[in-house]
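Sample pair:
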Amino acid sequence: MSVPPFAGETYPMFSSSIFFSESPRAVPRDCASACYVTSPGKELKEIQVQVQVQNQPTQNIAVSVTLPSGFHYADGTYGKQVFHPDANGKINLQGLTCEAAVSNGQYWLLAEHSDGQAWAEIIVQADTIPTPGQAYETVFNSDGSRAYVNSAIDSDFTISIIDTKSQTIIASLDDVDSPSGIALSPDENHLYICHYFPNTLSVVDTLTLSTVGVLPLGVYPSNIFLHPNNALAYIKGENRILVVDLDRLRVVTTINTGNVNGLVFGPNSKAYALVFDAPFVESVVKVLDTRDHLVTRTLPLGGVASRIGISTDSLSVYVPIFTRGPFDPGSWIAVIDTLVDGFRNNIEHGEVGLVEFGVSPDGKRLYTANSTPFVFSIDLQSLAVKSIPLGNNIRPYYLSVSPDNTWIYGGDLGNDRLFALNVKE
């Protein structure tokens, strides 16, 4: 844990302390005892400065309070303000706000007089939203104002609808049969849900939350990927992909691919399926022709991956390799050039076992994570890697980036909650 500047200085005739009226929530293990835990965009509850001279409360003194960068007072101002204690030697600081653009990390609030000073630690970390079970996949609507989250506890399954401004659940689909994949239609009027055990695809009206269509599939569907230019969906089945006409709600054909972990649609009527090749204990990317629905090429990755993403210009496919094999923790991001369907380069990030993955909608960054409480941001121009602490002992599980480039949502492995990380610049 870092210490504030001048923390070793003492002033025997003057003392001040900073108290928090709200108990810290999920205090990080490296947080000082006097510590306030908040999230970007949140107002801090009442903070109190207690001033004493020769162990007696005093009001005949001026105290300067300096906020850390990115925090403002109730009147919208920043930096330093001067306060005078009340008869009990107290200064109540109300309406302090941590701005939405503040990065996660450790900050210090300073109260000082010519004869002394006191510091208080503020930890900014990702916000969390309770969910009815382990949170898995998240899909956002087009402006990022709503998120649909798939979660499960034991055999109870729920799809929660979250207002991203208030970070609260505003509606839910309860008692859903084994939802294993969700997707939102481009017009946002329908939510498509794969059901693993009933082996069906259901269509839900997003206004009424009622089921308006059901398609039997029969192959343990577990993920759904919507074609960006027509009413087709590629649905992962058992060692194959089912091509579904969503307008007519019927299966058009199947593609024998193997065990698909993810899929993205690229340019020139192509798709890229991430497939685990069990005999060779490695993952491959299979290039698919989406006109004829055939595998046209296979690209070995030299390691194992679970996620796949594509750049906003559709020219690069990214695959985070989290291990070379059972005894080699090598980790990198493979980059495939979609114009030639060959490897362009590897992004070496220096971290271990990065599994989870997302691409920023502005095309500037990749986000990835392992089982530690961090999200790693990779600048695609400089390839610099920045670690963003999540706090709360969060173990990120699935990453979804909002279309407005404001939020990363993800599950917390082993806990019934979703984390919301503000990445707006």
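Confidence is low (pLDDT under 50) at residues 5-14, 23-33.
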